[in-house]
């Protein structure tokens, strides 16, 4: 009798304690990857999201049990709440508030679900709700959340349109983009058209070399749209100017923009009016602030892709792969970059940190010395006139021959490059034997000659073309035309980035450059410690 009463109580108390511990303080290990929350009413979306964000580490879907036309104003408000507060309150999470109209049926998600959550009011429906989601992983856990509605203030009417349009770069989709796309989806009954800026529109951006290719950006936007409402028609295309198809297609009735791009919408409407096409209505969203922005590091105050790209500097952007062409030690980092990109300071700092520095241009000059094989080879191939009376290679004369004739340049490279890289490898080996763990190899032709094949990692240094020109003019006392010629004769920033493991951009203060370098060096030490 005694045991019969106490056992269920003990089990109940234990389960409360266990679920309290689990819900209130999960460790990263206990956190689910991707979660899906069923919510009884749109009014609870933000409150539920806040609670659920403590249990999920990657993607969190929010699905109201039934979205109706009457709930559009509440959904619009919740879109704002969920995404505007996401960056400061749950920045680790990729939140996706589902806007599909109607009840839960035949739901698909781009990310498989490991945790289903539901607000307590849906306790009796949870089995059927769960069975309507096709992308739930086996062994998925189910938990309930007890959440009250939060006051949301005044709700604005939501007008809907058949065809809605918007544009953007959408590099590394962030909460500002999700807010914009969601407000467009909410207002569309038939189609949403999205222009995604093509490469010709990117040059004015911060670190354009790190912007994802347009096909990847289009795919990310499409995946997000399909996740939040698969029932609309989506037209995505590479956008080559501000207007896209909007300047002459009357079918577009609404354009969605932010406070900072509303001018673009006005310009489009002016153009439409000139052509006798009715202007589109304009829905303007607020710009989401970035509470983590570091303005002293030249970051923007708003949530932005530029900030995300700035934060990639000095970090591994491409995982280094084992290199079977060279010995495991010493660890060789190739340092590449355009002319006047700021490699010298970076090399100096790396030296201070303990790396051995090897300059391949110096090696080439040394191999040109009288009496050495390369000196004879140059003389045999380019004539005695490129050798001075003292027996040195006359680099000015040699330069005047090769820089005006591509064939001659290729010939010189094919003679010099193998000698230089062979000597560099001998010196790297010797530095390793002297006890150096990290050797940084600098060469102007590192990328062109593909010498990164002889490195464990490639670190590339880039500055915008105009900045490089200004710096050369100042440093080398050259005209703008001469400086431009030198910059343009080199491998482009894009090509340097395309093969880099780490990118630096000394385009701001020297402190900013040093911070990038500190980050890269720290990450390298951690990597090497694990590699042993
Ligand atoms: C020229 C355009 C398309 C280029 O886009 P942009 O480089 O600004 O793209 P980006 O990816 O940075 O932003 C995309 C959109 O999200 C908005 N946005 C960006 N960050 C935030 C933020 N933190 N909060 C809110 N909205 C944001 C932008 O204002 C923009 O409207 C755009 O700026 C513009 O002028 N749009 C209006 C005209 C238009 O839409 N044309 C295309 C029709 S198909
Ligand atoms: N963050 C910065 N802000 C302004 N100027 C800078 C910055 N970093 C470097 N510079 C200046 O830019 C010029 C070019 O830098 P540096 O000579 O280091 O380039 P480099 O990559 O070593 O060039 P090269 O390949 O021509 O030898 C120098 O005059 C340097 O002082």
UniProtKB/TrEMBL annotation:
<keyword id="KW-1133">Transmembrane helix</keyword>
<feature type="transmembrane region" description="Helical">
    <location>
        <begin position="6"/>
        <end position="23"/>
    </location>
</feature>
<dbReference type="GO" id="GO:0004140">
    <property type="term" value="F:dephospho-CoA kinase activity"/>
</dbReference>
<keyword id="KW-0472">Membrane</keyword>
<dbReference type="InterPro" id="IPR027417">
    <property type="entry name" value="P-loop_NTPase"/>
</dbReference>
<dbReference type="InterPro" id="IPR001977">
    <property type="entry name" value="Depp_CoAkinase"/>
</dbReference>
<keyword id="KW-0547">Nucleotide-binding</keyword>
<protein>
    <recommendedName>
        <fullName>Cytidyltransferase-like domain-containing protein</fullName>
    </recommendedName>
</protein>
<dbReference type="Pfam" id="PF01121">
    <property type="entry name" value="CoaE"/>
</dbReference>
<keyword id="KW-0067">ATP-binding</keyword>
<dbReference type="InterPro" id="IPR014729">
    <property type="entry name" value="Rossmann-like_a/b/a_fold"/>
</dbReference>
<dbReference type="Pfam" id="PF01467">
    <property type="entry name" value="CTP_transf_like"/>
</dbReference>
<dbReference type="GO" id="GO:0015937">
    <property type="term" value="P:coenzyme A biosynthetic process"/>
</dbReference>
<dbReference type="GO" id="GO:0005524">
    <property type="term" value="F:ATP binding"/>
</dbReference>
<feature type="domain" description="Cytidyltransferase-like">
    <location>
        <begin position="165"/>
        <end position="309"/>
    </location>
</feature>
<keyword id="KW-0812">Transmembrane</keyword>
<dbReference type="InterPro" id="IPR004821">
    <property type="entry name" value="Cyt_trans-like"/>
</dbReference>
